[in-house]
Amino acid sequence: xxxxxxxxxxxPDDCVVSRExxxxxxxxxxxxxxxxxxxxxxxxxITYADTNNRVRFFSESNVSGGFPRAKTIIGRRxxxxxxxxxxxxxxxxxxYRVFWTRLGDKIIRVLLVAVRKPDGELxxxxxxxxxxxxxxxxxxxxxxxxxxx
Length: 149
Description:
CATH class: Alpha Beta
Order of helices and strands: EEHEEHEEEHH
Shape: globular
Number of domains: 1
């Protein structure tokens, strides 16, 4: 049996996946513009802090706002409450921590995860904030929308 590459069903084309200047990721190539647009399109927000507990990056979602942030948080140390929980991730005792909070009328799930190299070396910690208000306020409606893929 021939694989897809040898199939005559799909004529070859001249598609170039990697463009000049594209960073190469383990699973493909994206331009800086594409990476930034993807972060804005996600229905969640991510904040990343390095091993020194300094914020190096955060995303802003066009879909759902999590926590209001300003660019001035770049370089700041993590808040004490977050830093205490990050220690459990850094040591490997836990792979992630989940917290729930309110932001006005929104119910936000906050997930803290260790970010590691393939060899296990710690690079930093990511905080993922996602608005779960609709899910928690309308569980019956959400269950009706579930698709089996």
